[in-house]
Design goal:
This protein has about 775 residues and is α+β, with helices and mostly antiparallel strands. It has 22 helices and 34 strands. InterPro entries: 6-hairpin_glycosidase_sf (IPR008928), GH-type_carb-bd (IPR014718), GH92_a_mannosidase_put (IPR005887), GH92_N (IPR041371), Glyco_hydro_92 (IPR012939), PNGase (IPR050883).
Length: about 775
């Protein structure tokens, strides 16, 4: 059963007024995808992110109160402003926000008072442009972005008292109006953690014409004529004469470094360009970025979904660096509160994005990927730990040391514009260091027990089995780095601990489970029970999290035939839920039940790779069928377009890879597994000008199976593809069929290689 669609046909048609064939790529991507969500059921938990790829600042309308992390909800009919935002997830929340809002008639400044009714048919959203007519405010608000700035245009319906209201939000903000320069400068400090005491976001807003009156405000009072104010929560307003032109425009920039740096950025990124020029530049940037992958064929909705997913994949992580007057990259460190030269990226959780997002960047944006690696080493220098969840500094969220995975995956794929020796040293440190009490996501929670016993015990440590599995995978990634660098001792140590998954795998029942500190298994095991030793899932989800050694897992679960049957059981076991230590149904549970694919919970990360594991046991047709099923049933381009949290690009990157027909099952290796290409043709336009093309013949909705394959004209009869084959350019062609004869790519040489098997080979082999 597909998750319930709440949109009417009329609203969908209103959102997409023209055919996809008439649209540029930026117009195919829908920022409203996933915005029809609640805390209890996520269709993505997204907001309309208007920004350039990998931006420092994002701009978005908000329908809820500013403090509400679920701040844009598609079902609501009022907008309170267009805000600068950096929120990676409603579960992490936002920081460094301020907003602008037009007001007509009587001056109102508080967010509930200035909130204006709107209708979605009068809302236009694409990644580089947002427009909405505000019925109550009697004005149209538009915004278009650069990487760190934005251009706004407010068009009032009629002449009269016309205002633009600035809200600098709570947590000790300040504003200063400079009438002679048509300018407002200010500071917002709002945040939800991950910042030092001297954190500040300096903003500057320059209008295109003089204003006739101005003032400041707090939630308690309006100060007419006052030009400067600092308090817990402040704002400003400007009044404009619209008896002639009804259009008021402004350009906006911000900086974490200084107000002077904000002006440098504003001059560099917008300068004297008007709104339409900035909008045109934004569209060109998005068309170039989305054009890194060109798809042909499929349905119009599939193409919209694909480019919406590709857009979501590159909204995160956010750049946190700026270019100074000498055009050098510099950044304010959220760790030590100082300004440093170099790169830093933030607002992402590697527990989510190591799986598909970063492997996608390694193909499409290797230079940016290298900068991300440099930024992680900068975080290590300034905080003493590699990051796991950043927003903007360390956040206590999720598990694992997946910076290890990012380093290894980039390194084995030839991205080496970062210090590999230093990266390995940081891995050694974090793998042997207990997580600090105030942030369990960095270092290792249970490090000492894991080192001595080879697993994390329960109940002494929450989510212990999940942590053991992820630490073991991350150790594999560290071993890969050590091998490449010729560090034999580190390679041997990490290779040994990469097999620690076996210490939480109970062969007698065929599941991973909780284990006590005395070595005994935890009692009353139920594979449908969530929580306890698992993170946001149960044993049905986590048993497959042995990315690095699937051949070893197959042996422990009884061999190829038994393993294939157990994979089948995931889908055939009813989607029953035992809430366990969560004590109640959480949204991930509800989403799994609604997806109605048994115990397969695509709405959360732990099991998303599992579909591709059929390839290891010579049953690739099952991977093909299930990948198509997930793409067709659980993704669409509409506001209810996801089956769970989108999670800073991971859910979208899964779709991008799967729609092209291959997937990075084990990041840290150079191997991708074949699935079922969705389109007639997908062309990857590589950074060096080469192309990698995936063609299909006889494709269609009921033809998911590969009957034959050819690579550069030669027979292709295997379920794996090497990274070098992609970046060298070439053409891969599949003949698609409605049924399978169980012959294509089922022989032993066709099967994928286990990561541990490859790691054990001598260097250079």
């Amino acid at each position: 059963m597909k998750p319930t669609l709440i949109l009417t046909v009329l609203s969908v048609l209103g959102m997409f007024p023209a055919s996809a064939a008439e649209k540029s790529l930026v117009e195919l991507a829908n920022p409203l995808q996933g915005t029809d969500s609640t805390g209890g059921f996520s269709h993505g938990n997204t907001f309309p992110a208007i920004a350039l790829p990998f931006p420092m600042n994002v701009w978005a309308p908000y329908t809820q109160q500013a403090k509400d992390p679920f701040y844009y909800n598609y079902r609501q009919n009022k907008i309170r402003g267009i805000r600068q935002t950096h929120q990676p997830s409603p579960w992490i929340a936002d920081y460094a926000n301020f907003s602008l809002m037009p007001v007509s008639g009587k001056l109102v400044v508080k967010e509930d008072d200035r909130a204006s009714e709107f209708r979605h048919e009068n809302e236009i959203a694409n990644p580089g442009y947002y427009s909405v007519h505000l019925d109550t405010a009697k004005a149209t608000a538009e915004v278009t972005p650069t990487e760190r700035c934005a251009s706004f245009r407010f068009t009032f319906d009629e002449a009269g008292d016309s205002y633009v209201v600035l809200d600098a939000f709570a947590n000790n903000s300040s504003v200063e109006i400079i009438p002679g320069e048509n300018k407002i400068v200010g500071i917002c400090r709002n945040n939800n953690g991950g910042v030092p005491e001297n954190f500040a976001n300096h903003f500057v807003i320059v209008f295109d014409r003089p204003f006739t009156a101005h003032g400041t405000w707090t939630p308690d009072a309006i100060q007419e004529g006052q030009a400067k104010l600092a308090d817990k929560h402040v704002g400003a307003y400007l009044k404009f004469d619209t008896s002639g032109s009804k259009v008021v425009s402004c350009k906006v920039a911000s900086s974490y470094i200084s107000p002077e740096q904000a002006l440098i950025t504003l001059d560099r990124e917008i300068g004297k360009s008007d709104f339409e020029a900035v909008r045109k530049q934004a569209a060109a940037k998005w068309n170039e970025t989305l054009g890194r992958i060109k798809v042909d064929g499929g349905t119009e909705e599939q193409r919209r979904t694909f480019y919406s997913a590709l857009y979501r994949s590159v909204i995160f992580p956010h750049s946190f660096f700026e270019y100074d007057a000498a055009n050098k990259p510099v950044y304010f460190s959220p760790f030590d509160g100082k300004v440093h030269e170099g790169y830093f990226y933030t607002d992402t959780g590697y527990w989510d994005t190591f799986r598909a997002s970063h492997p996608l960047y390694n193909i499409l944006f290797p230079e940016i990927s290298g900068q991300i690696m440099q930024g992680m080493l900068n975080a290590y220098d300034q905080s003493g730990y590699l990051p796991s969840w950043l927003s903007p500094g360390h956040r206590d969220c999720m598990i694992g040391n997946h910076a290890f995975s990012l380093f290894a995956d980039a390194w084995v794929k030839g991205i080496r514009n970062f210090d590999g020796e230093k990266a390995l040293a940081a891995m050694v440190h974090d793998a042997n260091t207990q997580a600090p009490a105030n942030c369990k996501s960095i270092g290792r929670d249970g490090a000492e027990f894991y080192k001595t016993k080879g697993y994390v015990p329960y109940p002494e440590f929450k989510e212990s089995t999940a942590k053991t599995l992820e630490f073991a995978y991350d150790d594999f990634c560290a071993a890969v780095m050590a091998k490449s660098l010729g560090k034999t001792a580190e390679q041997e140590a990490f290779s040994k601990s990469a097999l620690n998954y076996k210490n939480v795998l109970d062969d007698s029942i065929g599941f991973v489970r909780g284990r006590k500190s005395d070595g005994n298994w935890c009692e009353n095991f139920d594979p449908t029970e969530w929580g306890g030793p698992f993170t946001e899932g149960n044993s049905w989800h986590w048993t497959w999290s042995v990315f690095q050694d699937i051949p070893g897992l197959i042996k422990h679960l009884g061999g190829d035939e038994a393993f294939g049957k157990k994979l089948d059981q995931v889908f055939y076991t009813p989607p029953d839920v035992k809430v366990g230590t969560y004590g109640q149904m959480i949204h991930e549970m509800t989403e799994m039940v609604a997806s109605n694919m048994g115990q397969y919970a695509h709405g959360n990360q732990p099991i998303q790779h599992m579909i591709y594991l059929y390839n290891y046991v010579g049953q690739p047709w099952k991977t093909q069928a299930r990948a198509r099923e997930v793409m067709s049933r659980l993704y669409q381009s509409t506001p209810d377009g996801f089956c769970g949290d989108e999670d800073t690009g991971q859910m979208s990157a899964w779709y991008v890879f799967s729609a092209m027909g291959f997937y990075p099952m084990c990041p840290g290796t150079d191997e991708y597994l074949i699935g079922s290409p969705l389109f007639d043709k997908a062309t990857i336009n590589l950074p060096d000008g080469k192309q990698f093309v995936i063609n299909t013949k006889n494709n269609g909705p009921q033809r998911p199976y590969i009957g034959d394959g050819f690579f550069n004209g030669k027979s292709f009869d295997r379920t794996w593809l090497k990274h070098g084959e992609i970046i060298s350019g070439g053409e891969l062609t599949f003949d698609m069929r409605s049924t399978t004869d169980h012959k294509w790519a089922t022989h032993p040489e066709a099967l994928p290689h286990g990561g541990m098997t490859e790691l054990a080979k001598p260097a250079g082999k």
